[in-house]
Amino acid sequence: NAKLNQCKIQAHIGDITQNPEEGTFDLVVANLLTDILLKALPHILLSLHQGSCLILSGISEKRWKVGNYKV
């Protein structure tokens, strides 16, 4: 889709808890099971800046009520 629309994007795929990226991103997308997401969330939040967009999926509503995080 990005190529079709001639968008210049830089995508990173990997385990943010093992290989954190330097800097912040405009868009972060994570499709993770709740347990994995909760482990990765502090790292994910560090990769955001003011105005970033965060898209999460794979969250179990019953298990999400942990800590100060809000869905």
Helix and strand topology:
Elements: E1 25-31, H1 34-46, E2 48-57
Parallel strand pairs: 1-2
Structure characterization notes:
Helix content is 18%, strand content 24%. The chain is α+β, with helices and mostly antiparallel strands and 71 residues long. It has a two-stranded parallel sheet. The longest helix has 13 residues, at 34-46. It is globular, with a radius of gyration of 13 Å. The N and C termini lie far apart (28 Å).
Specify the structural class.
alpha+beta
Biggest pleated sheet:
2 strands, parallel
Distance between the termini: 28 Å
Strand order of the largest sheet: 1-2
Give the helix tally: 1
| Coarse morphology | globular
Mean pLDDT metric: 81
Residues in helices, as a percent range: 10-25%
Beta-strand content? 15-25%
Count all strands and give the number. 2
Radius of gyration: 13 Å
> What order do the SSEs take from the amino end to the carboxyl end, as H and E?
EHE
Low-pLDDT sequence parts: none
Can you describe this structure in just a few lines?
The protein has 71 residues and is of the alpha+beta class. It is built from one helix and two strands; from the N terminus they run βαβ.
Give the key terms:
71 residues, alpha+beta, two-stranded parallel ribbon, 1 helix, 2 strands, globular
